[in-house]
User: Fold this.
Amino acid sequence: MDTDRILIADDHTIVRSGVKLIIRELLPLTVIDEASNGDEVISWVKKYDYELIVLDINMPYTDSIPLVTNLFAYREHSRILIYSMNSEDLYAKRFIKLGVLGYLNKESNAEEIKRAITCVLRGDIYISKKIRNDLSQEMLSKKGGENPFEKLSDREIQTVKYLLHGYSLLEIKKILNVHSSTVGTYKTRIFEKLKIRNVRDLDELAKMYQVEISKL
Assistant:
């Protein structure tokens, strides 16, 4: 398999190095570039038309949904493989629907990473069997049993995580580096979308849908 150039985007050097070693084994002649945040990703993509972009969606100062949208705006046929610790149940379907070709958990071993890369480079979709089945069911049925947390934006998901961890709105404001009123707006939207009244309801709903806080 021949390829020209691959971009690895992750804010952790050790993760980029590990993925790079795996890619070198699979594609020894490819050129590999690295990015640590969304701005660097866009900067690289403006320069080169990558065969593959391996993208973490939890980099600092990076809103992943607009980033992916912008990537497709610059390079319509981009092959993107999401490589993240974030919950596949909450994130995979949303990114696949945006046009991303693969979603891989960072706990995956080297062989699975190679399979995912090979699959995405072919232009095929790489996701777990569970998510594939979920997507198939959504296409075949209009039933309303979907996970309500999927209605939330990335920022709202982040806010959910901190609310469930017991952080105050002021603490969340500092973590997300946004205005206090913005955090309040996130919270209001979350409660409206999930049809709940308080954080206690949020906690119960998260348990009901088996949302793993550590992977948000």
In short: The CA atoms of residues 173 and 180 lie 6 Å apart. The first helix runs from residue 13 to 26. The mean pLDDT is 88.
